[in-house]
Amino acid sequence: MSGNADGVTVENVDIYYDDIQAVWDVSLEITENDDVVSLVGPNGAGKTTILKAMSGLLDVREGRISVFGEDTAGHSPSDIVDRGFIQVPEDRELFPQMSVRENLEMGAYPGRARSKRTETMERVFDLFPILEEKESAHANDLSGGQQQMLAIGRGLMAQPNILALDEPSTGLAPQITENVFDAVEGLAAEGITVFLIEQHVGHALRMADRAYVLEQGSIVTEGTGQEVLESDHVQDAYL
């Protein structure tokens, strides 16, 4: 595996929090030819830790991460956003007292996104009609599912080449979770590569072109989504 100018590569990466190792020798790849790449595993496995390193928020002790052909070492998180790798964090990090429209506008801060702000917002409203209905409402007054849609919409406003969704189903009722996964499939159908980090293993694998299972900081299974879904390990441990 080598740095991919059309995607993101993680190569033999170790990540520590101070002196405590959280991730061991992890390698994975996302290309813009993928619709959905899923990273699944139990809570606490290290999935978010890997995403933070990919986004430039954590350093790696060993190995390397490249985003669209450039090593993330020495690049700030805003540099990585500017290159088109956009993360929607698990806790959404919305601006609670700002309106839906204002939250979306805040997502268009990368230079390449500002000039396309109006047309991108129309695209977000097409994908999530409820956001247009509630565009004047405060983010804090939305339901959990609507807040998740707003967080995804704000990510889209930044014009991602790859959109990373960290546990988008967290805290949502089962039917709302289905709606969010439908939205992920809609993003992929529109040509946006989605890096999906989830503990809902069955959902995440069924829609994935490629998938990785992370446990206790290490990749234990990888392959196409279908191969991983049908693997003995996943069938025994998760389904």
Short précis:
The chain is of the alpha/beta class and 239 residues long.
Question: Could you characterize what this model shows?
Answer:
By secondary structure, the chain is α/β, with parallel strands linked by helices. The chain is built from eleven helices and ten strands. The chain has helices at 47-54, 77-82, 100-107, 111-114, 117-127, 129-133, 144-157, 174-189, 201-206, 225-230, 232-237, and strands at residues 7-17, 20-31, 36-40, 62-67, 70-71, 85-88, 162-166, 193-198, 210-215, 218-224. Strands 6-7-8-3-9-10 form a six-stranded mixed sheet, with helices on both faces. The radius of gyration is 17 Å and the shape is globular. The model has no long low-confidence stretch (mean pLDDT 92).
Q: What would the keywords be for this entry?
A:
239 residues, single chain, alpha/beta, 11 helices
Structural class: alpha/beta
Radius of gyration: 17 Å
SS elements, strand count: 10
Flag low-confidence runs. Answer: none
Give the SSE order as H and E letters: EEEHEEHEHHHHHEHEHEEHH
* Percentage of residues in helical conformation: 25-40%
Distance N to C terminus: 31 Å
Number of helices, where a helix is a run of at least 4 consecutive DSSP H or I residues: 11
Shape: globular
For the largest beta-sheet, the strand count, sense and barrel status come to: 6 strands, mixed
Side by side, the strands of the main sheet go: 6-7-8-3-9-10
Strand content: 25-35%
Mean pLDDT: 92
